Write the structure tokens for this entry.
Amino acid sequence: MVKKLLGELHEFKLPSILTPICMIGEVIAEMIIPVLMGRMVDLGINGGDMAYIVKTGVIMILVALFGLLSGIGGAVFGAKASTGFARNLRKKMFDNVQTFSFANIDKFSSSGLVTRLTTDVTNIQNAFQMILRMAMRAPASMIVAMVMSFIISAKLASIYLVAVIFLGIVIVFIMNNATKYFKQVFEKYDSLNESVQENVSAIRVVKAYVREEYENNKFKIAALNIYEMFVRAEKIVTLNSPIMTGTVYACILLISWVGAHMIVAGELTTGEMMSLLTYCMNILMSLMMLSMIFVMVTMSQASAKRIAEVIDEKTSLGNPSDPIMEVKDGSIDFEHVDFAYSSDSEEPVLKDINISIKSGETIGIIGGTGSAKSSLVNLISRLYDVTKGSIKVGGVDVRDYDMEALRNQVSVVLQKNVLFSGTIYDNLRWGDANASEEEIKRACKLACADEFIERFPDGYNTVIEQGGTNVSGGQRQRLCIARALLKKPKILILDDSTSAVDTATDAKIRKAFAEEIPGTTKLIIAQRISSVQECDRIIVMDDGKVNGFGTHDELVKNNEIYKEVYESQVGSSGDADFDEPS
Amino acid sequence: MAEEKVKEVRGPGARRGMGPRPKIKNPGKLFKRLMSYVFKDYGIHMILVVVCIILTVVASVQGTMFTKTLIDSYITPMIGQENPDFGPLAGAIGRVVIFYALGVIAAFVQARLMIYVGQGTLKNLRLELFEHMESLPIKYFDTHAHGDIMSIYTNDIDTLRQMISMSIPQMLNSAITIVSVFISMVILSVPLTIVTILMVAIMLFVTAKATGASGKNFVAQQKNLGTLNGYIEEMMTGQKVVKVFCHEQQAIEKFDELNEELFQSAYKANVFSNILGPINTQLGNLSYVVCAIVGGAIALNQYLGFTVGGLASFLTFNKNFSMPINQVSMQFNSIIMALAGAERIFALLDEKPETDEGYVMLVNSKMVDGKIVESDEFTGHWAWKHYHKAEGTTTYQPMEGDVTFNDVDFGYTDEKMVLHNIVLHAKPGQKIALVGSTGAGKTTITNLINRFYDIQDGKIRYDNININKIKKPDLRKSLGIVLQDTHLFTGTVEENIRYGKLDATHEEVVAAAKLANAHSFIKRLPEGYDTMLTGDGANLSQGQRQLLAIARAAIANPPVLILDEATSSIDTRTEKIVQDGMDKLMSNRTTFVIAHRLSTVKNSDVIVVLEQGRIVEMGNHDELIAKKQRYYQLYTGNKPEMVTA
């Protein structure tokens, strides 16, 4: 998994390697300076040699300069490597998401994808920088300090060795226990946040049912839970610091005692002992660093896993090796089609569908909630692949087409449609990037969107806010239809796309379709009988099966479901809609 | 509807999404307030922590001093002795052991205490935040982006955790160290202290410069991060549309551009914050060298009685002085970040909660000897309980469900009114339908009855009681609401239905589900009534969620019902079945219905046609059709015979 992510370093490999090297440079400077300090005290100050003080001072400044350069190098390269790595990870994920099929998108929720692309990447960026700058530095600093200590006195240095091994074991033990708790804490965190999220978005329900107290209690339990977990985890972690300081103090005392004997015996100088004590601090600091890195890595592991999942996800739909680029006409044939959203779900959503639609026909589709109307049409532009059987568009299996070529000819106005931030022009040009002004206006006229657009002060240059929140539901739907029309498709599918448009306008749009784009095959899913009754033929869906297929008059006569819906809706003239006056 | 409103109230100046962090206005005051939270519950803990930190610092200063005395007083005199006596040295080490032990214990106690201080303060803050949030008026939620509210609980609290449990003890430690070392330095040598202070001044200057530069870049980074996150959010939500229009390439191009901008600013921001450490470390080394040379010159020439031994100690202090200053400067950024978070936390806590000046209560009632008496049990009858303060008496009035709007004006902001002169009378048991185009003010009217918002002018009366006099919880309990946007909670299906009546039995839950026609689909769920719903019921279809919401309202069994597009996502056939249940639910109850489907509206007692916040027509179906105006036009699609106002 880590290797997978590191594969995205690309041009930031060099800085990623240079960072630890620079950090080692800084460590070396850091190690030499105490030696120089010790000498300065020993030979210069205690020896009363001013020239030596100045000479050592100059060397020290040079070393410090070297340390500074290395440090800056580490800072710059580290920043570059980590932020660049983050950039690449984001890009890789985003690019891969663009290849996702609908099935892939369904698998990750869109909010899940957002978190992976934002928070998780930031976590990795921070952890990566930390590792680059510290992971080498800490052990290097420890090793150098060790080596220097051994050079000064192997006997005294062995005290450190024992201490380091002891502390190492203790740290691993502590961290192992602590991470176990931390992991649980983070899971609890998620549920706490979920509870907040729910209350923020469902506040009307909470207040309407006067459930503030109830929610407070629920939250209190979750918060107390987190508190207790955190305290338990941190209690273990706080053992760290006293054990380490204690060990270091023990080392200092041991060295003082043994060192004193050695100095008296002439085996050690006082300056050397001072240096040894400094190294003791260095070793302690490195150990602290290591334990911090350890925590950081375990914490970022979850993020790494979530990112890797997105990168690894292979699109469930691929282009054929020798794709057909041209869609001949707008005929559609379903041949023994079965469809299930996931292979392991027991019951298919669509069962043995056999339909043949001629090019240029207008087909209405009607059926209850969950009768798989949307699933049926989603198969035509290959948003999902059939589980069994085949679908032919223009006489060719949809799986043999180039996906882009197919989708450009099969234009779908989705049930859950979205406009994007930008002007109305920008949004409409999604359908055709090179559409002329006349073409755009014509499409809008067909979709009955021209009237309200022209009433906006900025007309077609009106800026749509994210999610299209500044236009009404009916206006949004008409803009989405215009956008789909601009593709000049051979097949146009409207998945309940005029539900918020009033009856009169709805009829006007259908009339325009019939007159202006007669050659286009049109599939219209609707709840209202009035929206489909004039269609050439109507499909009645029920529980994943075609229950009836025929003209309005035929169905009213001999289809039970259709008749029932018809009667429930029609008193005089159909289902009125009080939204959006024309 | 909800979205529309948010926009209206928000206005042009409001903050959107994840913009750049605003500058902190009054950091000192913020810090003080934050500390007051820490000290409120953990004052004693904090005092003990300070004591422990002093002990730790003293122990470590003692350690430094010990090295000097160890060499000067014990080792050096022994050098060259024939039979050195290690006894005094052993004694000295013994004394230091006590100090060290004290230091270790103090460090341990401090760390332990800080867990409670840190986590406890966070817990209290969280609880206070949540409780306060629950008490805020709906307006708060309509005018603040939900993401912003969420980020207070996630990001801001988290930065506070780091600050309280790490930065504060470290700062205290550093401050105490700085003071004690400074005093020692002054005692040893004033001139060298001045040299050291000079070097520290340079360090602080560099720190200030670098922090400034990194701050500027951090703002740029935050801004770019906000833009990119916004783009990612938009694209991920619209990903299916992107696919349908084969717009992948364009999406990637724009993404690359934003991604690159973020990279550039993040890179710069990180460089500046990274660079501070090495620069200050080496400045510290420089300070050491300068002191050594100046001090050497003074000591060797024996000015001012400064000894060589003194210089050695001084140099150690010099080093111990730069280190904490370095640490403080490193903590600076995180403290600024935490304070910015604290500012947002306090902003939420400072929001005014919903006020409730009502005193009339809703109680279950029964008739005893022709008089209404309060009952502890559910009786199916309700009464308003008035307590008359002046006379000290309590009277009961039967709850009937009569709602009148008397010339009501309302606007989400004072500048822009959305409802004008609304006059409306819902008689007990009547079904009132509100129709009109999006933004006409249908939902707004229902928001006023339950006092989600308060009116600017006019009066709303409930059984002839001004609704302002009714206690809000009692008022809301008397109104059952099913909203267009169905919100469910994490929990089982059964728990979600029971939300309407917490002490409902399983049988009652099933009965309510049956009434709403939800029983049959619930039974088909993998675990029936025990199926867990997560993420706002994401595993259910919109229609199924609406059925659950109806069941939830049904179990609450409220005297007055408000159905805001409650069946909009249910297909007409199912709706017809639900309708039977709903009719049962609505019988003998005053019901407000908002719908755009004729079948839902047609049999209402009164149909109110709204247009741009005004009532343009009112009457029953037949009357309005006969009038041949607005309703007739909406209903038939034909043009009205006369132009309406």
About this structure: Confidence is low (pLDDT under 50) at residues 1-22 of chain B. The CA atoms of residues 379 and 526 of chain B lie 36 Å apart. The radius of gyration of chain B is 36 Å. The longest helix of chain B spans residues 248-300.
